[in-house]
Automatic annotation (TrEMBL):
Protein name as annotated: Glutaredoxin
Zinc-finger is among the record's keywords: no
Sequence ranges assigned to domain Glutaredoxin in this UniProt record: 16-80
InterPro entries per UniProt: Glutaredoxin (IPR002109), GRX_PICOT-like (IPR033658), Monothiol_GRX (IPR014434), Monothiol_GRX-rel (IPR004480), Thioredoxin-like_sf (IPR036249)
Organism: Natronospira proteinivora
Length: 106
């Protein structure tokens, strides 16, 4: 399996996937920390991948997503965006609505 196939498989097999620097409990950058915290506050389970553990994936994901920065949030296989977009969605209530819809909650 090549790196693009690995990325595609990860995205397709997780309803909510956050590519971040570090982990939700030990983030390695402020933007990743902020995004993970918001996702935790919404309370819907999410998966994550620490891009610092795989340099090849880290570089390929930028091309795959056509998004140059991290974190990157995918919901149901679609790139939602990075920290700024996630924060805007959170503040408007849109993020919670979308995540709870994916989780089958009202």
């Amino acid at each position: 399996m090549n790196i693009e196939q690995k990325i595609k498989e990860q995205i397709e097999s997780n309803d909510v996937l956050l590519y971040m620097k570090g982990t939700p409990d030990f983030p390695q950058c402020g933007f990743s920390a902020q995004t993970a915290q918001v996702l935790k506050q919404v309370g819907v389970p999410f998966s994550y991948f620490n891009i610092l553990e795989d340099q090849e994936l880290r570089e390929e994901l930028k091309t795959y997503s056509n998004w140059p920065t991290y974190p990157q949030l995918y919901i149901k296989g679609e790139l939602v965006g990075g920290c700024d977009i996630i924060m805007q969605m959170y503040e408007s209530g849109e993020l919670e609505k979308e995540l709870k819809s994916v989780a089958g909650e009202s």
